Amino acid sequence: MPAELIPIIAIVAGVVAVAVIAFGVITVRSERDLVEERLGRYEQDFQSYLDVDSDEDKPEKDERKALDAIDKAIAKRPFAQRTRQQLARADIKLTVAEFYAVQFMAPVVFFAGAYFLLFRYDLIMSIVAGFVGFFAPRFYVTRATSQRLIRFEQQLPDTLGLWVNALRSGFSVLQAMEAISRDAPEPTSTEFKRVVQEVQLGIDVEDALEHLLARVESEDLDLVITAVNIQREVGGNLAEILETIGHTIRERIKLKGEIRVLTSQGRYTGYLISFLPIAVALFLSVIQPGFMDPLFRSRSCGWPMIGIGLALIGMGMAAIQKIVNIEI
């Protein structure tokens, strides 16, 4: 075997091994572990209720010992708490340690894929691909959070209708939320199920609703939770209040949809103008490897041109998004 191929084979083998381990760690996580873990994030006083060991779990916990140790070591750090909250909002079934492991592996995988498969030993473009891979997990979390929030807000008027009907049938607030957790679609059912589970563990209803608002950062949900908390303190007909709020939210969603349709042309024009130069550069690098190398290797001319171009693209994209983003 040629000596120059040994480092390449070692890198490929390492990437494959890390990917297999990561896949195994992610797939062994059961839904029960995730619910227990996320309940424990918000109320550490109830951790003793969540630590339930069994013989079937021991092999699984042995495999996760290293990641669990890292997760506990960084659990109190501000950046870990922010990441944990972002993962909870996106409903991604990973701990903080697992997410950072994926984030550090992604550049290696992107670089190896670009170097050996996509750009065929083009080092410059492979480094760019690795740089993109570093931000890919964050982009995925942001995208998943946004999509989940949109689905939750679209389901909120129907959720309030179900809540109102349950209250008028004689259910308590907690029983109505339990009915929502059974009958509502995802992600509403999962979020209200967590609220019910927290209350059953002994957490106050107001605190459990605040935890729901922390996971689902929605102005409409904030209005609903504020109404529920005020009703618990001063009394009143909660069914009528929620019915009025539901009608208001439904009209807001309808108006948002109309505005989104009217601004869709400008929004997609911004996407096209912003990503077209990058797409053309990638296309040229694939069909003609080395064509873009002078631009990246020239520090006196090429690098300033790249920096200025990316800055102008970012400024244009931000300006277009600011124009089409109409607050209601």
The count of domains is 3
End-to-end Cα distance, whole Å, is 66 Å
What structural category do the secondary elements indicate? mainly alpha
What radius of gyration results from the CA coordinates? 25 Å
The helix content, as a percent range, equals over 70%
Number of strands: 0
Main sheet characteristics: none
Task: Extract low-pLDDT stretches.
Answer: 1-7, 20-56
**Number of helical stretches of at least 4 residues:** 16
Helix/strand order: HHHHHHHHHHHHHHHH
Structural shape:
elongated
Secondary structure topology:
Elements: H1 5-27, H2 31-42, H3 47-50, H4 58-63, H5 65-73, H6 78-90, H7 96-118, H8 123-168, H9 173-183, H10 188-200, H11 205-215, H12 219-234, H13 238-262, H14 264-287, H15 293-297, H16 302-324
Would you give an account of this structure?
- The protein has 328 residues and is mostly helical.
- It has 3 domains: 5-145, no CATH class; 149-248; 263-324.
- Helices cover 80% and strands 0% of the residues.
- It has helices at 5-27, 31-42, 47-50, 58-63, 65-73, 78-90, 96-118, 123-168, 173-183, 188-200, 205-215, 219-234, 238-262, 264-287, 293-297, 302-324.
- 20% of the residues are buried.
Question: Which properties best describe this structure?
Answer:
single chain, 328 residues, mainly alpha, disordered N terminus
Quick structural overview:
The protein folds into three domains: 5-145, no CATH class; 149-248; 263-324. Helices cover 80% and strands 0% of the residues. It has helices at 5-27, 31-42, 47-50, 58-63, 65-73, 78-90, 96-118, 123-168, 173-183, 188-200, 205-215, 219-234, 238-262, 264-287, 293-297, 302-324.
